[in-house]
Design a protein that fits this description.
It is a single chain. This protein is an alpha/beta fold and about 200 residues long. It has one domain: Rossmann fold. It is built from seven helices and five strands. A five-stranded parallel beta sheet has the order 2-1-3-4-5, sandwiched between helices. Helix 2 runs parallel beside helix 7 and helix 4 packs parallel to helix 5. The longest helix has about 40 residues. The chain is globular. The two termini are about 30 Å apart.
């Protein structure tokens, strides 16, 4: 089992290293886009399914609360947290609309709709992007495998070129953290105090 641990860790490192070599410039561009969105008074709506739902909540928390240091909160909402909304839309309409209805209710022109889909094929993420585009929002996709329709319809996208879902998810949260740190440093350049969070 020790050899398997080392093998899996090495596999993860290879996927992540290749991703960052290929996408460093795009990550900088996206961090600047998010910073500009916050500066102009807009917000981010983040969403996905399963592990990607957890990533959406994780990233939203980093923006709203703090990442490396205490500072003003930044407006980010995970569309994966309200069970009453999620189940009522699924029950009364269709599961594919769970993000669409929330985007329609909460989104505004100039906001960012940030969808996460390891397969790139999640119908509810794609439907959410379609509604966001109708409303004049910017769409940002985190995907895996070949990116699927999710990557093709997004304004901005970061695709992890792997067929292994765990490797895709591991890379997604690393890049999410990096974007949070870049945005925080850009918006609060004098705030870079010591890291006190647990």
């Amino acid at each position: 089992m020790r050899e398997e641990v080392l093998h899996l860790a090495q596999e993860s490192l290879k996927v992540t290293e290749r991703f960052f070599q290929e996408n460093a410039d795009a990550i900088v561009e996206i961090a600047r886009l998010i910073g500009a969105t916050f500066r102009q008074g807009n917000k981010i709506l983040i969403f996905g399914n399963g592990g990607s739902a957890a990533d959406a909540q994780h990233i939203a928390a980093e923006f709203v609360n703090r990442f490396l240091f205490d500072r003003a909160p930044l407006p980010a909402i995970a569309l994966t947290t309200d069970t009453s909304i999620l189940t009522s839309i699924s029950n009364d309409a269709d599961f594919s609309l769970i993000f669409t209805r929330q985007i329609e209710a909460l989104g505004c022109r100039g906001d960012i709709a940030w969808g996460i889909s390891t397969s790139g094929k999640s119908p509810n993420v794609i439907e959410g992007f379609c509604k966001a585009k109708e409303m004049g929002m910017v769409t940002l996709a985190f995907t895996g495998k070949d990116g699927g329709e999710t990557l093709r319809v997004a304004d901005y996208g970061l695709n992890v070129n792997s067929i292994r879902t765990p490797r895709i998810q591991e890379t997604h949260i690393i890049v999410g953290h990096i974007i949070c740190e870049l945005v925080e440093r850009e918006l609060f350049p004098s705030g870079g105090g010591s890291e006190t969070g647990i």
